[in-house]
Write a structure and sequence with these properties.
419 residues, alpha+beta, Glutamine Phosphoribosylpyrophosphate, subunit 1, domain 1, Rossmann fold, 6-stranded antiparallel β-sheet, 17 helices
């Protein structure tokens, strides 16, 4: 939970924060506290579950840092530049704000995994995890960015730039990074959204190989492709699977809620958000693991292969880069919110900073590779999965998008009367 307001009076700031927090009450899973600070810019009021202070400076945050000392170090930083330097050495998935006597600085992780929306008014600022809590005209802070409000004005700058490098053996490097991410980011007892495709199967396989007990969840209509695919994959991996069978009433109820909360309300967004909502709602854990980011980082979508075929590798690569840059708006904001509404925190291990940097360093020709005249999507990820020991049928399994494989999009069109 993050609710923050900076205003000219205590009363106005406190009133704003109370309203913002009330609109995000579904996120309050543990005690939060109201914090009041007087600054050179006005009065700051914050409502947060995670907070660390140093002197008169406060860090509030959502998500997690791999180094638990990072929030305190951020509070000790004297300038936005120092904040950026600390974040460059601080992997994790997080967003938050640092409230100091002379400034308020918002920050977000490298990939934009964790949301943070803001609204500016003069020297005042309001921030929340969800745009709906501020009004849909609010903006999401971009990935790897700092936004600082001070007497000098408002400054938006990037603290993160991908550390692209030459990779001698991309398959081996990726296999190692995937193993580390699964070890670090998939908690014991967590739930994995599971379609039986390459991305979710690899996460489940790596979690199981490291000795963790995880729950596999597949959401869809009775007899849907994803249930069949997930059952077959779970059997190959010798893992238990929970099939969540939804009907039109379940879908309609989810959509009614999601339409109020999501900034983007297209059919595709509502279909995918409904899947995450029902997976989260039926999870036996408060942590939901998903394969988000794998398609954008490694060339999984059909449109990339189509672009390669028609316009060449440069165009396909440009499409992938654009999708990675906009992942926080096009996918993560939606899926994280839907998961939160269902009661779970979303974690996407493929967006781990080591994997993220590595993926952006791997040449696009290893993501979309011609083999025997056919374009193989996510070639390098498949080869890394093969090296790690994922069963071959799962390594080579073609992608089928969740909104189609679950049967949700087809039924949603009928429910909403759209063709």
């Amino acid at each position: 939970m993050i609710a923050l307001a900076l205003s000219e009076s205590w009363e106005e700031a406190a009133e704003q924060v109370a309203e913002i927090a009330a609109k995000q009450k579904h996120r309050t899973r543990k005690p939060a506290r109201m914090i009041l600070l007087e600054t050179e810019l006005g009065y700051a009021v914050a409502y947060a579950q995670e907070a660390r202070s140093a002197g008169n400076t406060l860090t509030i945050y959502h998500g997690f840092f791999k180094d638990p000392s990072t929030p305190r170090r951020l509070a000790e930083a004297e300038t936005p530049r120092e904040i950026g330097e600390i974040l460059r050495e601080a992997p994790g998935f997080y967003s938050g704000a640092i409230i100091a006597e002379d400034r308020v600085t918002l920050f977000k992780d490298h990939a934009g995994h964790m949301p943070l929306a803001y609204r500016l008014k003069g020297r005042g600022i309001a921030a929340a995890l969800e745009r709906q809590a501020l009004g849909f005209e609010a903006e999401q802070l971009p990935p790897g960015a700092l936004l600082t409000v001070s007497k000098a004005g408002v400054e938006l700058e990037k603290w993160y730039k991908p550390s692209k490098r030459e990779v001698e053996d991309p398959v081996a490097a990726l296999a190692s990074a995937l193993s580390s991410a699964a070890e670090d980011l998939i908690p014991e007892g967590s739930s994995i959204t599971f379609s039986g495709g390459l991305d979710s199967s690899l996460l489940a396989f790596l979690a199981s190989r490291s000795g963790k007990q995880v729950e596999l969840i597949s959401v869809g209509y009775e007899g849907c492709f994803d249930h069949e695919s997930a059952s077959e994959a779970a059997s190959l991996l010798d893992l238990d699977l929970k099939l969540v069978r939804i009907g039109d009433e379940d879908l309609a109820q989810a959509v009614k809620l999601l339409e109020k909360m999501l900034p983007k309300k297209g059919l595709m967004d509502l279909a995918l958000a409904s899947i995450f909502y029902h997976a989260s709602k039926n999870s036996g854990s408060r942590v939901l693991i998903a394969g988000q980011g794998a398609d954008e980082l490694f060339g999984g979508y059909w449109k990339y292969a189509e672009a390669l075929e028609k316009e060449g590798l440069e165009r396909a690569s440009a499409l992938m880069e654009s999708d990675v840059e906009n992942l926080y708006l096009n996918n993560l904001e939606r899926d994280e919110l839907a998961s939160a509404l269902g009661g779970s925190a979303l974690i996407a291990p493929y967006l781990d900073r080591e994997i993220y940097d590595l993926a952006l360093s791997i040449h696009p020709s290893l993501k979309l590779k011609r083999v025997n005249g056919e374009i193989v999507r996510k070639w390098v990820l498949r080869r890394a999965a093969e090296r790690l020991g994922l069963p071959k049928p799962l390594v080579e399994r073609p992608k089928k998008a969740a909104q189609y494989g679950s049967g949700v999009l087809k039924r949603l069109r009928k429910i909403l009367g759209k063709t």
